[in-house]
């Protein structure tokens, strides 16, 4: 029994000595391994290595690992986690050559996180702010046009929210509030579905409130902008007398 115990102790001592003599993996080696896993879409395993490196001292390897971790989250549609990593990258490496990419991606993540128009639009508003900051900081960036496109999409989503607010108040019979929201859209003069429907409900609500002059003004705009629309045909019977 004593002999077996001595053998075990010798083996343990040898294992400990080998462990002490083993050279720890460099950051470059770890990154290479993580990149290979990332390329094979083994995101979870790659993430473990990227996370390990991102908590090391600030270096080129740390910057790269942090950005790759953000990209990994983005590739798997974990937009809130991706945004957090992009923001960490911006805060830690504000002068990095790829910081412009991180600023742009923050805006994209917020856009992807935003809820449908009938719900709260905080992320949509923050997305607009993020893209405006990107444009302000990098006015010559190749993604300048893409940033503007995202801003337009966000702004249209905010208009959809305005229309939904008007429609909800219309269904609740709060007609004054409904008209206020519809007027916000009409005054912009956009030639689209939201404008068409807002003009229709505006005419309808003014008729309900027995305000004939305003009803006719809304109808004339509706008829001039959308002469063949079903909304124009539907409400025209109230005016063609």
Write up what this structure looks like.
The protein is mainly α. Among the domains are: 29-76, no CATH class; 173-241, no CATH class. The protein is built from twelve helices and no strands. The protein has helices at 2-21, 27-39, 43-54, 60-75, 79-92, 99-113, 122-137, 144-171, 175-186, 193-208, 212-225, 230-235. Helix 4 (60-75) packs antiparallel against helix 5 and helix 6 (99-113) packs antiparallel against helix 7. The protein is elongated. The model is unreliable at 17-22 (pLDDT under 50).
Overall pLDDT level: 86
Taken as a percent bin, the fraction of beta residues is under 5%
Low-confidence stretches: 17-22
Question: What is the H/E string?
Answer: HHHHHHHHHHHH
Taking the sheet with the most strands, its summary is:
none
Number of helices: 12
Would you tell me the structural class of the helices and strands?
mainly alpha
Shape: elongated
Share of residues in helices: over 70%
Q: What's the alpha carbon Rg, rounded to whole Å?
A: 30 Å
Q: How many DSSP E strands? A: 0
Q: State the end-to-end distance.
A: 113 Å
Keywords:
mainly alpha, 241 residues, elongated, single chain
Topology overview:
Layout: H1 2-21, H2 27-39, H3 43-54, H4 60-75, H5 79-92, H6 99-113, H7 122-137, H8 144-171, H9 175-186, H10 193-208, H11 212-225, H12 230-235
Helix pairs in contact: 2-3, 2-4, 3-4, 4-5, 5-6, 6-7, 7-8, 8-9, 8-10, 9-10, 10-11
């Amino acid at each position: 029994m004593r002999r077996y115990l001595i053998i075990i102790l010798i083996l343990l001592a040898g294992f400990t000595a080998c462990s002490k003599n083993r050279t720890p993996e460099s950051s470059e080696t770890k990154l290479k391994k993580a990149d290979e896993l990332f390329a094979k879409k083994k995101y979870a395993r790659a993430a473990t290595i990227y996370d390990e490196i991102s908590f090391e001292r600030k270096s080129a390897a740390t910057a790269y690992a942090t950005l790759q971790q953000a990209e990994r989250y983005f590739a798997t549609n974990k937009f809130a986690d991706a945004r957090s990593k992009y923001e960490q990258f911006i805060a830690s490496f504000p002068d990095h050559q790829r910081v412009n990419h991180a600023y742009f991606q923050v805006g994209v993540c917020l856009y992807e996180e935003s809820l449908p128009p009938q719900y709260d639009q905080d992320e949509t508003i923050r997305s607009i702010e993020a893209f405006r900051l990107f444009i302000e900081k990098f006015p010559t960036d190749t993604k300048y046009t893409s940033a503007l496109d995202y801003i337009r999409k966000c702004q249209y989503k905010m208009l959809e929210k305005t229309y939904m607010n008007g429609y909800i108040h219309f269904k609740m019979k709060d007609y004054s509030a409904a008209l206020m929201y519809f007027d916000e859209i009409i005054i912009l003069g956009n030639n689209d579905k939201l404008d068409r429907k807002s003009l229709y409900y505006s005419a309808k609500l003014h008729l309900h409130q027995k305000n004939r002059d305003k009803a006719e003004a809304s109808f004339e705009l509706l008829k001039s902008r959308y002469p063949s629309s079903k909304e124009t045909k539907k409400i025209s019977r109230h005016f063609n007398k």
